[in-house]
Amino acid sequence: MSTARLALIGHGRMGRAVEELADAHGWTVTAVIDAGANRDGAGITARSLGNADAAIEFTTGGAAPANVRACVRAGCPVVSGTTGWDAERPRVEEDVLAGNGAMLWSPNFAIGVNLFWQVAERAARLAGRAKSFDAHIVETHHAAKRDAPSGTALALQRLASTAFGRDIPVSSVRVGAVPGTHELLLDAAFEQIRVVHEARDRRVFAHGALLAARWLVGRRGVYTMRDFLLSEGPSS
User: Fold this and answer.
1) 90 and 166, same structural domain?
2) How far is Cα 87 from Cα 68, in angstroms, rounded to an integer?
């Protein structure tokens, strides 16, 4: 695997996890841009990114739109795992396309979560046809996580509700240091089905983000992890 240049935008828990795994994935970290030097994306230029081949952005919902737009202006493909900016994202995606840039966004980069969504969607569809099941989603994260429900839970809710035939409510739990657990509960009078994904370490998200960044290099457009997984890109 050839070495590529990577810029990190955001140096919180996820940014540090990406940095920890970067070398093993064939990346050299050329820049780390933290919030203090990057108000409204002003700290992001081709030079400040260290002429990176790609950037990985884990910041906040308020900062992500400006960060992505700045990466496009700098000519740097960007992988964003920031959640909490759903309302703004369609306009940002339009700007990425207009600027001939490249962005891959996902609320969750764990390969298993992306498989879990498909399994849960299938289970919800079958349970919906049975008519005897009720459904609920429960998501649990560490106490410091700001958004609730999580972006992963909202994605699950959209997929499963459509398949189930009616809206499925979500309950959020914030406690301790849990990296992330998501559960689709299908309950009937005399039986219960539980479809669960449990992240044991936040490095699973960093691993997926690094794979996605390698895949994004040389591409133009707006992508998700589904595009990556369905492509002939590198395996996990």
Assistant:
1) no
2) 15
**What residues act catalytically?**
141, 145
Does 192 reside within a domain?
A: yes
Q: How many domains does the chain have?
A: 2
E strand or H helix that includes residue 141 = strand 134-141
Domain of 84 in residue numbering reads as 4-105+203-230
What is the edge-to-edge ordering of all strands in the sheet holding 27-33? 27-33, 4-9, 54-57, 78-80, 102-105, 221-223
SS3 (DSSP) at 11:
coil
Sheet arrangement for strand 170-174: 170-174, 134-141, 180-187, 192-199
CATH assignment of the domain containing 180: 3.30.360.10
User: Which two three-digit tokens encode residue 46?
Assistant: 């081709």
Listed residue (75, 81, 83) closest to 217, CA to CA? 75
Give the confidence band of 230 by pLDDT, cuts at 50, 70, 90. Answer: confident
Measured distance CA(229)–CA(71) in Å, rounded: 24
Four-point Cα dihedral 183, 188, 192, 197, nearest 10: -10
Please tell me the chain's helix, strand, coil percentages from 3-state DSSP, rounded to the nearest 5.
Answer: 40, 25, 35
pLDDT in tens, 96-148: 999 999 999 999 999 999 999 999 999 999 999 999 999 999 999 999 988 89
Cβ atoms 6, 29 nearer than 8 A: yes
